[in-house]
Amino acid sequence: MSWALTALAALLVIGALLLPNTLPGLRPDRFVRIPAEAILGVGVLILLPRRPRLVAAVVYGVGLAVVTLLNLLDMGFNEYLGRGFNAALDWDLLPDAKSYVADTLGSGVATGAAVGTAVLALLLMAVLSAATVRLANLLARHRVRAGRGALVAGAVWVLCTALGLQLAGLPVASDRAAGALKAHTMRTVQSLRDEAAFAETAKADTFGNTPPGQLLPALRGKDVVFAFVESYGRSALEDPVMAPGVSRTLDARAEALAAAGYRARSGWLTSATYGGSSWLGHSTTMSGLWIDNQRRYRTVTAGDHLTLTRAFQKSGAWDTVGVMPGVQKGWPEAEWYGLDRVYDAHRLGYRGPKFSWSTMPDQYALEAFERKVHGRPHDRPLMSFVILTSSHQPWAPVPRMVDWEDVGDGSVFGPIEKAGRRPADILTNTTESRKEYGRSIQYSVTSLTEWLERYGTKDTVLVFLGDHQPIARVSGERASRDVPISVVAKDPKVLEKIDGWRWTEGLKPAKDAPVWRMDAFRDRFLTAFGSTPHPSKG
């Protein structure tokens, strides 16, 4: 039993030292390597007297637990956001993760997951500390042989490094744990530097001092709608599982809009985020600044950098309104966006069931928008900022379209929600997740374009786009960050203004259609519709 516990302790330590930080990296061959940190640890521990040795062993064990936790966080962030965990930026996202789990799987599961995470962290520290202490005591009892073994292992490590020996594409000589700590340290330092540099960048604005009369003159008299479709990414149009259904929907909806007198142009934008944190995509598009983390978001929304939506407000020629079915608490960013009124989840009058994370189906949100705002008499044209949520993960249950006359207060969606699939049914099934994601995109695009077909006028201009690609489980490893964007209008003069963009005709951008960074859109849009640059330097 004693030797079994010692062997287990050694396996735990070696496993922690070699643990990768991505789920695809969890393969047996990743653990058949020689960790430099183990050799150095042996060398230090056999030289120390008893008490300092025990202290060093505990510190070593806690350090291993920290590295393990960082690797596990990296796995989660890489899976859902396409990037590693950032200790300087990402702690604020953990409450959002808990809220997402609560909305998706229930508050009991969310609470259990939070408690389980805390217990796991403490357990890792306790177990790895106990393992290193046990191994340290063993090394002390066999000091001479341990020293010789460390020297031999060190020589082999140096030889493997010098010869560049590899196993399954990875160096046999590993410094994985030290490399992980270094990467996280550099990531944190760079983020802190970036925050200061970005604050200065955000003060400058090409259109910051543009007089109201010189903003968007070519769109005066138009009702302009900017709509984001949650998780609407390039994969929806190109993945072999999802693309056929989504493509058929886009083609059918483009044909229906054409019959109603509308034409469309479509291209690609590269999103500032991936898999989640949709607000980063929204703010990047509207501000013309690259906002790819929470610190940047807080910095820019606390300032007065001109957003595209606020340009409409500043011009004095439009009333501005936000339709935010996903907002369920205070949203101070409305002022930064330049929105005169905001209709959040509580102000849209929905009485039906939630669809997992989504508070209401997109069709209801759009019908409520029509009933409460767009369809009512107004003295000035509207600029509307609409965030649709039905295609938010976990894509179960997915709503389906009902007759617009039957939408009412949303109660009609009750049987649809009950008959739909549960999140637990698809969360661990990649193929089913892709299928349901594709269905959700079809539903959202259909809702939005049917709303336009039903309620739009000759003066309606719709700009709709995705905020980011879906998570890697759906979009695939190393997927691009591109999202589709479309401009739809009846007035041919509107589309003539963007002829120089060389976008594809219709709702489906060609594979080789132009790809811009998302932060380029604001200035290109303002310029295309006649705005005159008057820079501010902050």
From TrEMBL:
Gene3D superfamilies: Alkaline Phosphatase, subunit A (3.40.720.10)
UniProt keyword terms in alphabetical order: Membrane, Transmembrane, Transmembrane helix
Regions crossing the membrane: 30-48, 55-73, 113-137, 149-168
Entry protein name: CDP-alcohol phosphatidyltransferase
Originating organism: Streptomyces nigra
